[in-house]
């Protein structure tokens, strides 16, 4: 698992380096070229977020005794991601002096206040957009957890139902065994009584034969 985490680390490093370079170029551009680069960076940032999610999953699979070290590394990567997102947000509303002068021409100084106001409005709008995106991601994560919890609950209920059926079958077998033991006990008791009775009869017969024999011998002796 740690080898997979380290592979994701390498991909993270490569991707963030490219994003940082492109973010630095955004304020120097304008028009369609700037729009395309912004879209490209936004897509790459989404890929970086997915890498962080994969790294988070890998950390959960790492043995507890080694997990603290990887959690610390993951935390630093998340902080780096937050900084990249802030830099990206600022870069989208920022212009280099050259681009600003090109856009505003001779009215650059008189339009400075309007540009500042525009930046503030765009920054506020971007903040709200990012908040909505984060809320949406949290809702999706919460929904996924709820679905997984429901699945676990259904599995537990199914297992409980199966265990209940096993217990019921075991009880039925126990009752049958008790009934068979009772029946066997009665049969053995009857057999023992018969044996005792038969033994008594045999003793009486032997005693009678012995008495008759003795009486017969006495008569002969007389």
Automatic annotation (TrEMBL):
Highest taxon of source: Eukaryota
Domain spans labelled T-SNARE coiled-coil homology: 124-191
Compartments it resides in: Endomembrane system
SUPFAM superfamilies: SNARE fusion complex (SSF58038), t-snare proteins (SSF47661)
Any coiled-coil regions, as ranges: 34-180
One GO biological process term: vesicle fusion with Golgi apparatus
An annotated Gene Ontology molecular function: SNAP receptor activity
TM segment ranges: 199-216
Primary location class: membrane
Pfam families associated with the record: V-SNARE, V-SNARE_C
Membrane disposition: Single-pass type IV membrane protein
Any one GO CC term of the record: SNARE complex
Family: Belongs to the VTI1 family.
PANTHER family linked: VESICLE TRANSPORT THROUGH INTERACTION WITH T-SNARES HOMOLOG 1A (PTHR21230:SF26), VESICLE TRANSPORT V-SNARE PROTEIN VTI1-RELATED (PTHR21230)
Name this polypeptide is given: Vesicle transport through interaction with t-SNAREs 1A
Species the sequence originates in: Scophthalmus maximus (Turbot)
């Amino acid at each position: 698992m740690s080898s997979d985490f380290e592979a994701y680390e390498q991909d993270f490093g490569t991707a963030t380096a490219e994003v940082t370079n492109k973010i630095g170029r955004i304020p120097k551009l304008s028009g369609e070229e700037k729009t395309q680069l912004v879209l490209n960076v936004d897509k790459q940032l989404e890929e970086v977020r997915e890498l962080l999610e994969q790294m988070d999953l890998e950390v959960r699979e790492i043995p507890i005794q080694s997990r603290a070290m990887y959690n610390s590394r993951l935390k630093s990567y998340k902080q780096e991601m937050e900084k990249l997102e802030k830099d990206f947000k600022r870069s989208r509303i920022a212009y280099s002096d050259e681009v600003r002068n090109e856009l505003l021409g001779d009215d650059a100084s008189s339009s400075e206040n309007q540009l500042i106001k525009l930046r503030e409005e765009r920054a506020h709008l971007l903040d709200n957009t990012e908040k909505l995106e984060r809320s949406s991601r949290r809702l999706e994560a919460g929904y996924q957890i709820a679905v997984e919890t429901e699945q676990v609950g259904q599995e537990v209920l199914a297992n409980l139902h199966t265990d209940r059926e096993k217990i019921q079958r075991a009880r039925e077998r126990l009752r049958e065994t008790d009934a068979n033991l009772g029946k066997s006990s009665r049969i053995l008791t009857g057999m023992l009584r018969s044996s005792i009775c038969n033994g008594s009869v045999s003793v009486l017969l032997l005693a009678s034969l012995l008495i008759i024999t003795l009486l017969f011998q006495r008569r002969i002796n007389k």
